């Protein structure tokens, strides 16, 4: 295990590749997922009835305003559907998808490998733990070192007995409040990152003070913050001064709500998903103007059926097909677009030399 040198390489579910082979990359998606563990039965009787219906055109208007209130909307484990949905991304010139389903989201290494083979896309798989609500029953008994060992095994040997290796630590979940077990996971991630040189993606706490606390936990545990991406910058409605402090810490900003065909979502005292795609691009253009072009990643974070093209959504190819004219309309150059979709993902996903 210690002899595997990944420095300068990207690890996909089909093996390691050169970073130049990534091509156009979406840095945060879910291809096969199961979020049923987060389902909460609606209070209203008519809503409870709809909660158990399959996603259809007839109830899509209701599901898009309450994406977490319909059980069928919360899982997608059909490999044939995944292949159908990802094929237009490939046909539009896409090369790589980073699949962030890890422990707590029904990660399926073998399924992802089959989807990768069928579509010809590179798929980079995540490792680690999501938010506290998804942690296993024995999490209190695990140490940060235990968690680091699990992640290192995923990265260097493979998940379970599949031999299929993860290529990124993430998405690592943080809640409100930021729980002790989540802090422990962050410490384990920092250890694993040092031992492997892997990139690390964080699903932050939905709070301006706590997201900075998430980052402090990583820094104090020895993580390389220049190899850390903070997800949901757009969807979690952080203040501009908070986002600037994330950048100043050295982290990547991940704008990953593009094409999310769902309505504003009340959560943890905030309203999520407030920005339109135009608003996201305008924010990115402002950061580029301030000199941060090389610290920004883009994605769609599709984790509901209602955002898939088969269910009336924009589909995984949305950024590649629909956004280029809008990118240019907000002042982004061809070089900017190439940096956001090719250069930055490559630099982020390539393993750094292990620090021991």
Q: What does the model show?
A:
The chain is α/β, with parallel strands linked by helices. It has a single domain (29-349), classed as TIM Barrel. It has twelve helices and 14 strands. It has helices at residues 45-51, 60-65, 79-91, 109-119, 144-156, 180-196, 208-220, 240-248, 277-289, 318-322, 324-329, 334-349, and strands at residues 9-12, 15-18, 24-29, 33-34, 75-76, 94-99, 122-127, 168-173, 200-203, 228-230, 252-255, 265-267, 270-272, 296-298. Strands 3-6-7-8-9-10-11-14 form an eight-stranded parallel β-sheet. It has a two-stranded antiparallel sheet with strand order 1-2. Helix 8 links the parallel strand 10 (228-230) and strand 11 (252-255). Helix 3 (79-91) packs across helix 4 and helix 5 (144-156) crosses helix 6 (180-196). The longest helix is centred in the middle third of the chain and has 17 residues, at 180-196. The protein is globular and about 55 Å long. The mean pLDDT is 95.
List the helices and strands and how they pair.
Elements lengths: L8 E4 L2 E4 L5 E6 L3 E2 L10 H7 L8 H6 L9 E2 L2 H13 L2 E6 L9 H11 L2 E6 L16 H13 L11 E6 L6 H17 L3 E4 L4 H13 L7 E3 L9 H9 L3 E4 L9 E3 L2 E3 L4 H13 L6 E3 L19 H5 L1 H6 L4 H16 L7
Parallel strand pairs: 3-6, 6-7, 7-8, 8-9, 9-10, 10-11, 11-14
Antiparallel strand pairs: 1-2, 4-5, 12-13
